Each structure stands twice: as C-alpha cells, then as structure tokens.
C-alpha cells in the first residue's frame, strides 16, 4: 500500500470517527416530572402551622421553619453551610427540588423512561393520622391522586400501566399499608400502598416491608447536607481523627419499657456504668432536630447501638454512619434487608456489628462484653469502611457542586434501573419477571 493511499484512508477514518455521534448520556434515564395540581404538593406546605404540624414537641423547630431551604430546615447556626435542623417528613419536597435539577429531564412523557410524581404523600396523610374526625376516612388516602392520573392525559399512565412511575414516601411503608376495608380503622396509618391503582408504582420509602416488590427503602435523612466536596471531605476527616474514649452509645428514649425488650436490656446494662463504657443520650424530646445534642457524643463513641423501636429502622443509624460510629444492629430488618442500593447487604460485617436481640433479652448475652472483645484494629477497619460508605447515605444540599453519587442520586438511579427491568419484562411478555428483586443488591 502506497503512502499516499494510506494517508487517504487515515483521513477517511478520522472523518468517520469525528462524524460518529457520542453515546446518548441520557439513554434509559430520561425522567418526566408529572405536573400535578398544587393541592397534591405545594399547597400542602401553606398550612404548616395549623393543619400540618410538622413539629411534635414544644421545644422542636417551629413547623413552618422546618420548610426552610427547600425542606432541609433552618441552619443549626448562621455560619454553617452543611448542617440543618432537618425534619424527615419533608423528604418529599426535598426530593422534588433535587429532581428539578436532574440532567435528563424531558417535557414530553412519551420520550421519558420514567415518570416522577411530585406528590407529598406523607404530608397529605397528616389529617388522617392527626385529626380524630378524619380517622374513618384514612382508607381513601390517595384516591384523589388516582382519579387525577386516570382523567388527566390518561395515556401517560396507560402507556406502561404505571410500571414507569415512581414517587417518594417520607415514612415507613407500614404506616401506609392498612387494608382499605379495615373496620374499625387503625390510628396512625392509611391505605395508600394498598390502593390497586398504585400497584405498579415504585415507592421510595424510609422503610420497606419484607416483600418490597412495590417499594424500596432509602436512607433516613440526617442533618448533614454538605454543599461542596471539600466540606464533605473535611467532615469525614474530622470523624476519622476523632478520639473515641466511650465504648458504646445509645441515643433514643430512655424511659423504662413496660415489658422486657432490647431497649430495656440496653438501659439495664448502661445503668451505673461510667461514661467510658456507655453513654445515654436522651432523645425523648426533639433530639432529631438538634444534631449537636447527639452528634458530638457519637464522635466520641466507638459503637452506636441501633435497637428497633416502633419499626425496625432508625434515623440514628445514618447519624452514626456520618459520625464514623460503628452501628450495632439487633435484627436484620434494621438495615441489612432495607438499603440494598446504598449499603452492601452481603458485607455488613465490614462496617457493623450484629448481636441478635433474643440472645441479649432471653439468652443473657452482654452487649458490653461482646463489644469490648472486638479488637481495636478491627474497630478501626470497620470505621474506615463506614466512612467510605458515608457519602452514599448523605443528602447533599440542592444546588451544590457535584461530589459523587449521594443518597438522592443513588435512589433515583435505583428506581430507573428497576423501571427499566420492569418495562423490558412488560414488553417481552414476561409477567413473572415484573416483580423480580434482582436489581436490589448492588456491588459496592
């Protein structure tokens, strides 16, 4: 081959390569945010001081103040750009605000791979769970939304029978899964997740049920919402170098339970113990909205106890991860079976300790002795792995610079992955694969 011909072929190859379009960065990830009437979202925030009391304790942050910073709440102090008094029940407007910045939004739902419903479901449920006069109507929670979706541009819903729809529910799924025909109605819960109109939707909840074909758990929001990568790294560095003279810490209700349970066992073990063995942080009041109250003690503790309460999961688990305090679980439902998109289910032994609650309550196993027997170098390895995972469970502040995948990014990617799989099964005529959970456990 002559040099002239070789040169000519190289020119053609270069031109062809230049003409080849770049891969579609949004392939499979296009999201359409459904336009809902304000009564389903923003109007619910207008009554924060009356119909929708977000603060349950007199010393807590005032209800309307919790709405500041798009649901992050007020700053813990004026100079901070990373710490807020965050009410977890405002996770829905926060997700809504973050998704408005998603890089693959489309106006045409026919071009979308997924449809996000900005429905503030937990806020809409408050009248049913707080007003005695509304208790008997809790079975109709979500009916107005179902009627709207069926009547307004019905093709959006009908195109994939709702399998491409997802939304956020700022609470445990159990609180929204009461059968609609229950009589008498149970206080504190609604039937949103039992509505047949929503059977094919994906719900991002703070705690999922044991058969999460419909929902998937996302991390409880902490008060830490960094605005930049340097601030995130600075905090992790602080947690890494923090001196930890206390063996274990429990932050929660410290009143003695009426019957034997794991919390009672913890309180009994900590009774009369010195601070270097066990530290109790009383969170009977508004502890969740006062991060200084528990975060400083967590930075000084090697292990943070995470006993189940009314439901298995706790916000304190994620506070502990952010603080580099190794979480101690007493049942798998507290985390291992919940957060497969954010934390590696098969590798919990790398960053946590599990002590079966029955072994403690009924078997005489001592928590203090078990934790004291863990070698210090093993604790250090667990803490390091924990801090590596911390950015995955943090909700960065909206409008902040890119700092890798945070809890929202991972949750949205997980929902998209699940939706893509379901749509493929739907299109291929494989109904048995629609509710497979193969997407839940990710390699991290």
Task: Give your account of this protein's structure.
Belongs to the glycosyltransferase 47 family. Keywords: Glycosyltransferase, Golgi apparatus, Signal, Signal-anchor, Transferase, Transmembrane. The chain has 15 helices and 10 strands. It is α/β, with parallel strands linked by helices. The chain has 2 domains: about 190 residues, no CATH class; about 160 residues, Rossmann fold (3-Layer(aba) Sandwich). A 5-stranded parallel sheet has the order 1-2-3-4-5. The chain has a 5-stranded parallel sheet with strand order 7-6-8-9-10, sandwiched between helices. Helix 9 links the parallel strand 6 and strand 7. The N and C termini lie far apart (about 50 Å).
Helix content: 25-40%
The structural domain count equals 2
Strand proportion, as a percent range, falls in 5-15%
Mean pLDDT: 88
- Class from secondary-structure proportions: alpha/beta
Largest sheet: 5 strands, parallel
List the total number of helices. Answer: 15
Shape: globular
Unreliable residue stretches: 1-21
Distance between the termini: 51 Å
How many β strands by DSSP? Answer: 10
Cross-sheet strand order for the largest sheet: 1-2-3-4-5
Order of helices and strands: HEHHHEHHHEEEHEHEHEHEEHHHH
Radius of gyration: 24 Å
Subcellular location: Golgi apparatus membrane
Membrane topology: Single-pass type II membrane protein
InterPro entries: Exostosin, Exostosin_GT47
Domain Exostosin GT47: 26-368
């Amino acid at each position: 081959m002559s040099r002239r011909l070789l040169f000519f072929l190289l020119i053609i190859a270069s031109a062809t390569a230049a003409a080849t379009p770049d891969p579609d960065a949004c392939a499979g990830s296009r999201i359409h945010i459904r336009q809902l009437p304000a009564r389903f979202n923003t109007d619910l925030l207008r009554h924060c001081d009356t119909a929708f009391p977000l603060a349950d304790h007199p010393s807590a942050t005032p209800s309307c103040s919790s709405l500041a910073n798009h649901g992050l709440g007020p700053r813990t102090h004026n100079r901070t750009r990373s710490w807020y008094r965050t009410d977890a029940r405002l996770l829905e407007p926060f997700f809504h605000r973050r998704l408005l910045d998603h890089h693959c939004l489309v106006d045409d739902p026919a071009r979308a791979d997924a449809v996000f419903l900005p429905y503030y479901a937990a806020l809409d449920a408050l009248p049913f769970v707080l007003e005695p006069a509304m208790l008997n109507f809790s079975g109709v929670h979500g009916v107005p939304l179902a009627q709207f979706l069926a009547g307004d541009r019905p093709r959006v819903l009908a195109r994939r029978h709702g399998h491409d729809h997802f939304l956020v529910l700022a609470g445990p799924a159990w609180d929204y899964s009461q059968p609609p025909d229950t009589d008498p109605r149970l206080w504190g819960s609604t039937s949103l997740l039992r509505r047949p109109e929503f059977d094919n939707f994906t719900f991002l909840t703070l705690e999922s049920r044991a058969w999460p074909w419909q929902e998937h758990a996302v991390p409880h929001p902490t008060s830490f919402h960094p605005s930049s990568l340097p601030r995130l790294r600075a905090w992790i560095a602080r947690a890494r170098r923090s001196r930890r003279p206390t063996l274990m810490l429990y932050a929660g209700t410290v009143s003695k339970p009426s019957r034997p349970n794991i919390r009672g066992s913890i309180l009994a073990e900590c009774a009369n113990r010195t601070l270097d063995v066990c530290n109790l942080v009383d969170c009977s009041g508004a502890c969740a909205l006062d991060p200084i109250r528990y975060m400083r003690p967590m930075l000084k503790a090697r292990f943070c106890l995470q006993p189940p309460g009314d439901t298995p999961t706790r916000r304190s688990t994620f506070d502990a991860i952010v603080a580099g305090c190794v979480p101690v679980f007493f049942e798998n439902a507290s985390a291992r079976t919940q957060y497969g998109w954010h934390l590696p289910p098969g590798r919990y032994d790398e960053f946590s300790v599990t002590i079966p609650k029955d072994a403690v309550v009924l078997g005489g196993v001592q928590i203090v002795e078990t934790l004291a027997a863990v070698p210090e170098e093993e604790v250090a390895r667990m803490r390091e792995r924990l801090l590596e995972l911390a950015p995955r469970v943090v909700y960065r502040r909206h409008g902040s610079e890119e700092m890798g995948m945070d809890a929202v990014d991972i949750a949205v990617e997980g929902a998209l992955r699940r939706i893509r799989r379901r749509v493929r099964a739907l299109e291929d005529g494989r109904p048995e694969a629609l509710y497979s959970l193969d997407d839940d456990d990710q390699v991290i």
